[in-house]
Amino acid sequence: MGTIVNGANGGFKGKAGSIIGSSWKSINYIKGLYKKRTKPASEAQLIQQEKFRTLMRFLLPINVFLKIGFGGKNTEKVTPMNAAFQFNLKRAITGVYPDFSLDYSNISISDGGLYGGGTVSASFDSGELIFTWSTGASETFETFADDLVYVLAYHPEKDEFISTPAPSTRSMGVVTFLVPDHLASGSVHTWLFLSNRSKTRVSKSVYLGEVQLI
Predict the structure, then answer these.
(1) Nearest to 132 by CA among 156, 160, 151, 112
(2) Which helix H or strand E contains 175, and what residues bound it?
(3) Mind telling me which InterPro entries this protein's record contains (predicted)?
(4) Lower Cβ count inside 10 Å, N or C end of the chain?
């Protein structure tokens, strides 16, 4: 049985007949009960479902990055994961159904107004991935030496992500880390973005290219 929350004019919670009331982040919702599909999905629906699977398979493992990179995107109504999905849906998927794939160069891990890393690069040497960026800070642009730098690499053949144990800072200018033995062949796609120390402002992520592992 459903109940009225916060008085007669409040939200509805629970089940009553064919409707269900619920709330999320203080927003009240009413929806109908799920009805078992009797007709097969249309081609348009199948296309959307496959796009969803293709993109979410990539995004789900990096939710910890997306919480920062898309954490300021109207989070009262959508989660950072949903914001990242919506942002990347029209940009990152390529190919023709059912053979969709991702254009890694168009994938964004973050989006915001913080000034980024300036001149950035990613390379591989002696078993290590090396990320570099500009160290200059500017009060004019509200960038500081202790801004946090996040780096990310994705190995498509192994379907695995690797990164540093903790973010670096703008003042460091470089970070390196060993590539695990089981990933030390093929290539990785690489990204970098920054946030302020409180993680309330972020930069746009930068795709640093595909790096060959020797």
Answers:
(1) 151
(2) strand 174-178
(3) DUF6266
(4) N
Q: What is the pTM of this model?
A: 0.81
Q: Any idea how long the chain is?
A: 214
Which two tokens mark 135? 């160290």
| Domain segments of the chain as ranges | 3-32, 43-212
Which tokens go with 183?
């990933």
Q: How confident is the model at residue 31 (pLDDT cuts 50, 70, 90)?
A: low
Class of domain 43-212: mainly beta
